[in-house]
Amino acid sequence: MTTTAALRSSEPRPARPPGAAAPRASPRLWTYTAVVAAASSMIAVTALWVGGQGVPQVLGGGPEAVTAIGRVTGLWAADLLLAQVLLMARVPMVERAFGQDRLARWHRWTGFTSFSLMVTHLVLITIGYAATVRANPFAEAWDMIVSYPGMLLATAGTLLLVLVVVTSVRAARRRLRYESWHLLHLYAYLGVGLALPHQLWNGSEFVGSPAARAYWWTLYAVAVGAVLTCRIGLPLWRSRRHRLTVSHVTTEGPGLTSVYLTGRRLDTLPVRAGQFFNWRFLDGPGWSRAHPYSLSGAPRDDLVRITVKDLGDGSARVASLRPGTRALIEGPYGKLTGETYTGGPLVMLACGIGITPLLAMLWDLPYRPGDATLVYRARGEREVGFRGELDLLAETRGLRVVYVYGPRAGRASWLPRSLAGQSDAGALLRAAPAIAAAQVYVCGPDAWTEAVTAAARSAGVPARNLRTERFSW
Predict the structure, then answer these.
(1) Same structural domain, 233 and 352
(2) C-alpha triplet 78, 80, 82: angle, nearest 5°
(3) Domain FAD-binding FR-type, which positions (predicted)?
(4) What was the pLDDT predicted at 102?
(5) Considering 212, 237, 262, which residue would you say is the last residue of a domain?
(6) What DSSP line would sit under 253-308, residue for residue?
(7) Per-run averaged pLDDT (10 residues), the chain, 473 residues
(8) pLDDT at residue 315, as a whole number
(9) Which of 221, 313, 400, 428 gives the lowest tally of CB atoms within 10 Å of its CB?
(10) Residue 417's domain is classified under what CATH number?
(11) In 3D, which of 186, 197, 138 has the Cα closest to residue 163?
C-alpha cells in the first residue's frame, strides 16, 4: 500500500457553487410509509381470501382445500408482481428513501418469490379443479386455458414471465450483454399485464364483490401510473427542461472516458454528488437503450461530468461522442450520497470504476484536512483513474489516498493476492485506522463490495455508518 504524492491538475474541477442549495435529505417518514404500504397490501389481499371462505375450505380438507391454497398463493403472487413493478418504477420518494441498488436486490428477491408462488398457484389450482371433477390434471389444465375467460392471455403472460425469470438467474446474466438482458427484461411489463386480469374474471374473491374488484383495479392503476409518470413522463420533462448537451470528451486512463455536459438551469437539477442517471445519447442507432453512469464530479450550475469504463457496447460508444450531441436523462438515482454527513472522520473505498461517485463526493463534502481517507483498489497503477485530481485533493484538502494494486486474492476477500496472508479487517484498519468512528462509503463490483462490507463490520463500523453501492445488474 502506498500513499499519493502531491501533483497539480490543470483541469478545472466541477463543484457546487457557494450558496447553491443541495437537495434536502430524505425524510425518514418516506421509509416507513413505503414499508407500511407494502405490508398493508399483502394483508389486504389475504383478507380478500379470508372473506372468500378460504380458511373454512382449507380446514375442510379435500380438493377444496387444495384449490383454496392455490387461490391465496395466486393472490400473493399477483400482489408481489405489482410490488416488483413499483420497486423499479423509479418513484422519487422510494428511490431517495432506499437507493436503487437496494431496491434492485428487493426487486430480484420479490421476483423469484412471486414466480415461485405463481407456479405453486398454477399447480394447486389445476390439481384441485381436476380432483373436484375427477379429471386428468393435464386435460383439466388444457380445458382451463381454452375455456376460462382470460386464461389464454394469462398463459401468454406466464410464458413471458418464465423468460424473464430464466434470464435473471445469475448464471444466465453472466452470458448476456447488459443491453440484451435489459431488452428481455422489459417483457416483464407485458407479462404482468397479461397474467393478472384473469383473477378478476375467474377468482371467487372478485366475481361477487365490486369492492374487491375496485381495490384490485386501484392496485393496477397505481402501478401503471407510477411507471408512466416516473419512467416516462418525468424523464421526458426533465430532459426537455435541462437540454443536456455534450461539451467535450476526455480520456482519463485505459478504457476510461469522461464526458462533460452543459445544459440549462442545471442549478435546479435535484442531484447530489455520488448519484447517477440513466443516460441515452442521441448519437444514432441504439440511442433508446439507457445506461447507468454516475456523476464523477460534484454538480454545478453550468456543467456536469460522467465517467465511463469501456465494459460493453453502450459504454464503448461514449468515447466517440461528439460535441453537441443531445442527452436524455432518467434520474437522479442512488443513495450513496453525503446527505447526512456534517463532518468528522470519513473513509471511502473504491474498486475500479467505483471511484466515480466517490470522487464527486470527495470534491463536495465538508471534511477538514486529515479527516478523509480513500482506499482505491485497481489491478495495476496504469488502471488508476483521476490520479491528478486525487493528488490535488491530497494537496489542497488534506485527503489521504491509499492505493491497493493487483488481482484479488479470492471472492471472499477484498485484498489483492500480494496481501492474501493478511486478515481483511486487519488490513482495513491499517489502511484507515479511524474507520470504526468514521462515516464509510463503499463502491465497486458486487463480490468485492460484499467483502469490504464484511471487513468493515469486523473492524467495528456500525451498520448505520456504512453505505454501499454495487456495480452489478
Answers:
(1) no
(2) 75
(3) 239-339
(4) 80
(5) 237
(6) ETTEEEEEEE-SSGGG----TT-EEEEEE-SSTTTTS-EEEEBSS---SS-EEEEE
(7) 32 41 60 82 89 87 91 90 87 80 83 90 91 88 84 83 78 68 73 77 76 86 91 94 94 85 89 90 84 84 86 70 94 85 92 90 92 92 87 94 84 82 89 93 90 93 89 62
(8) 65
(9) 221
(10) 3.40.50.80
(11) 186
| 315 domain-assigned | no
Whether residue 120 contacts residue 73, with contact meaning beta carbons closer than 8 Å, is answered with: yes
Euclidean distance between CA atoms 306 and 242, whole angstroms:
16
Q: Which amino acid is at 428?
A: L
Cell numbers found for residue 253: 486512463
Q: Are 327 and 282 in contact (CB under 8 A)?
A: yes
Total structural domains within the chain: 2
Residue 13 gets which letter from DSSP? P
- For residue 411, tell me if it sits in a domain: yes
Please name the residues in contact with 16: beta carbons below 8 A apart, sequence gap of 6 or more: 22, 273, 298, 299, 300, 364
pLDDT of residue 283: 87
pLDDT at 313: 54
What is the C-alpha separation between 98 and 106, in angstroms, rounded? 10
**DSSP H helical segments within 134-261, as ranges?**
137-147, 151-168, 170-175, 178-185, 187-195, 198-202, 204-207, 210-227, 234-242
pLDDT at 14: 41
Q: Supply the pLDDT for residue 365.
A: 92
Cell of 169: 438467474
- pLDDT value of residue 193: 79
Residue written as grid cell 398454477: 122
In a domain, 32, yes or no: yes
Q: Distance (Å, rounded) from C-alpha 53 to C-alpha 179?
A: 47
Q: How far is CA 290 from the centre of its chain?
A: 14
For residues 473 and 467, is the Cβ–Cβ distance under 8 A?
A: no
Residue 226 falls within a domain, yes or no?
yes
Rg of the chain over all Cα atoms, to the nearest angstrom: 26
Nine cell digits for residue 402: 491509499
Give the model's pLDDT for residue 204: 74
How far is CA 376 from each of CA 183, 364, 379, 414, 439, rounded to the nearest angstrom? 33, 18, 10, 11, 16
For 125, how many CA atoms within 13 A lie in the half-sphere containing its CB?
23
Domain boundary among 237, 263, 294: 237
Reading the block at residue 418, the C-alpha cell is: 500480494
Task: State the Cα–Cα distance between residues 457 and 109, nearest whole angstrom.
Answer: 24
Same-domain pairing of 180 and 64: yes
3 state SS of 421:
coil
Structural domain of 208: 28-237
185 burial class (0-12, 13-18, 19+ CB within 10 angstroms)? middle
